[in-house]
Amino acid sequence: MALLDKVPGDLKLYIGGLFTLRRRESLEACGITHVLSVLRLPLDNKLFEGFEHKVVEVDDVDDENLLEHFPATNEFIQDGLDRGGGVLVHCAMGKSRSATAVCAYLIRRHGITPAEALSQIRESRPLCEPNDGFMSQLELYHRMGTPENVEETPAYQRWLYQREIELSRACGQAPEAEKIRFEDEHAQAPGSADFELRCKKCRRSLATSQYVLPHEAQQKTSTASCSHYFVDPLSWMRSELEEAKLEGRLECPKCNANVGKYAWQGMQCNCGEWVVPGISLAKSRTDQVKSRPQGAGGMGIRQPPARRSATENL
User: Fold this and answer.
1) pLDDT digits (tens, 9 = 90+) for 199-220
2) Global pTM?
3) Which residue ranges are recorded for the region named Disordered (predicted)?
4) Which single residue of 106, 196, 236, 278 could bond 208 by disulfide (Cβ 3.0 to 4.6 Å)?
5) Which residues contact 305 (CB under 8 A, 6 or more apart)?
6) Rg of the chain on CA atoms, in Å
7) Active-site residue 103, yes or no?
């Protein structure tokens, strides 16, 4: 296998490892004008003389955030190609970090999936294998629609929040108050809720369907239905969730009835699924109310018992 390999297709896009930079004659033969370094190592600046050079300092570990750099690396690669030059993307071995950056570019340029992008690269460089964390980030980038501004995308913000929760969990601590993301404080599409959950005692609305987290039963042979709705953190929970406790009760903000519980380290539903963080509303203490279509007026209607039981497993 060559020290640098051309990504299949009509683009002058190459991928390689650190030692590629010492083969000046090979770089010149390929018409390389731009070099993107995706690694955190001391670099000899003399190796990059005569090239447009960009460095993204990341380690090859699952929890490294390479996703936030995709718009900048894509722009650098595109600039080199638009100028008629060749672009080399490299890391230490030309295997994980560089492959991830090239995949991100191919996903945005061609609208293909991460698996398709990696398969294309492997045609010329079979050893390419982004670590699991980077592959997950590529999947998220694809689902987000490859936005030019990743940091303003709600899906990315939720992903960062989940990373904070996982870090706090690993430390055995509740997340810091300022890092908790209350989803209802972020814009939602009007009329996007299919139903709402109300306190059974006082009828106060506690959550709408866009804040209910879907989960699948892990015990496939079990006939037990889920006894909780798992939801995002919501603003009425603020006073309780910001107390820095690992777990506790959730009370209705109107009548103070016990309506659920939370556990930052995660909670197992009676169906077998683990949800992290576990923020739940008890089905026995809430009513699911179908939302009326836009223009129908009112807050919705309470479903009759037969209808509710048919939708209890949402």
Assistant:
1) 999 999 999 999 998 876 555 5
2) 0.75
3) 285-314
4) 196
5) none
6) 25
7) no
